[in-house]
Amino acid sequence: MVFVFAFTRLSERLVDRLDWIGFCETLVLTAALWRVWYRTARMTNRYAPSRPVIQFLVIATMFASLMMAVAIPRAFAERGAVFAGLYVGLQMLRHVWLVLLGGDRDAQLVSIRILFWATISSGPWIAGAFAEGGARLAWWTVGVGIDYLAGILDFPTPRLGRAGLGRQRIAAEHLAERYRQILIIGLGETLLASGIEVTPYGFDRARMVALTVSFAITVLLALIYFHRAGQILPAAILASKNPGRVGELGSVAHLIMVLGIVISAVGDKLIIDAPLGRAEPAWVLVIFVGPALFLAGRALLEYAIYSRVAWPRPVGLLLLATVAPATIGLPPVVVAAAAAAVLAIIAVTSLYLRRMLHRELAPPPRT
To answer: In angstroms, rounded to a whole number, what is the distance separating the alpha carbons of residues 287 and 253?
Structure first.
């Protein structure tokens, strides 16, 4: 529920500043929140969540994340120190907690490595808190970049080496369920935002059409995600020789999809606010970029599982890029309907290909 609130703050912030700077700021804030969520999911995957020590840490993380979400709308203004302070404090203090009370020696060494890199990234985050405008964005981009680079490099630390997280066993079903839940939360936030946006207008005909189109886009995104790859992720993690790598790729894939959902929520608000107006290029970009990012993330998830990408994903991205320019100047609800039509083609094609594959692999009937 904390992240439902956080997603609404992120989408509303992007609505208020619908330009490239606003997008980059939202991207940095989303990446920071995602890092908090992902490290928490991995923590409860590594440690028994029934332990009081871990439960306390989860509750503390939840409260700190709530405060970070409250700071989001003014994070690049007067609340920058609040957001950065909470992020840095959370990243560092919880691993100090785990080193002191977490568990066995191997787990403690992993937390020490993560703490080492959190200390390095804290510099740019704190520097950004005392900077303004573009300088803050630059510092925080460096800070969140260090956090993600550390994970990609497996937290190499002087005298300790790498953490070896890629080779460690993962509770696959638990981690996959966390991924599914965060996607459901994100998709649910788009419905929540659409419902709140349309309520003051009552059952105005044009806005009911806009609500229907936004609902269709949300449903199609869910179908595209859950059809196959979203269902067999646990088995893919278990079968992999490097389960940590699948888990990390899955994290990046879900981050991209969540960002796409946040931007789609912005598009939903725009089409409900002015369904029959004239779509400006920035509006068209938002309406199409959300589904495009979701498809890109979904393709990365498919690659993590199958080591390949089915052709409907890149073809869908190409279709979105081709259709988008042709819709500039059309009513926003029509623009969104065009994006929904492309998603419907992808969803139906994927389902058809899956059924054809099952037919080809099915044994011949007995005589």
So the answer is: 20
CA distance 92 to 148: 15
147 neighbors 125 (Cβ within 8 angstroms): no
Contacts of 67 (CB under 8 A, 6+ apart): 82, 86
Q: 147: buried, middle or exposed (CB in 10 Å: 19+, 13-18, 0-12)? A: buried
State if pTM tops 0.90. Answer: no
For the record, the structure tokens of 51 come out as 């332990």
> Among 72, 70, 62, which Cα is nearest to 32's?
72
Q: How many angstroms separate the CA atoms of 89 and 141, rounded?
A: 18
In order, the DSSP letters of 184-222 are HHHHHHHHHHHHHHHGGGTT-HHHHHHHHHHHHHHHHHH
Residue 182: both structure tokens together: 């965060």
Whole-angstrom Cα distance, residue 161 to residue 314? 38
Q: Which residues contact 241 (CB under 8 A, 6 or more apart)?
A: none
Tokens encoding 327: 């819709």
CB-CB contact of 262 with 26 (8 Å): yes
Tokens of 213: 């189109």
Burial 267-287 (b: 16+ CB within 10 A, else e): bbbbbbebbeeebeeebbbbb
- 100 CB contacts (<8 Å, ≥6 apart)? none
- pLDDT digits (tens), the chain, 367 positions: 788 888 888 888 888 888 889 999 999 999 999 999 988 888 887 787 788 888 999 999 999 999 999 999 999 999 999 999 999 999 999 889 888 876 777 778 888 899 999 999 999 999 999 998 899 999 999 999 999 998 888 888 888 888 776 566 666 677 778 888 888 888 888 888 889 889 988 888 999 999 999 999 999 999 888 766 555 666 666 666 666 677 778 888 888 999 999 899 999 999 999 899 888 888 999 999 999 999 999 988 888 777 788 788 889 999 999 999 999 999 999 999 999 999 999 988 877 776 655 444 334 444 4
Q: How many CB atoms lie within 10 A of CB 238?
A: 15
- Report the Cα 125 to chain-centroid distance in Å: 21
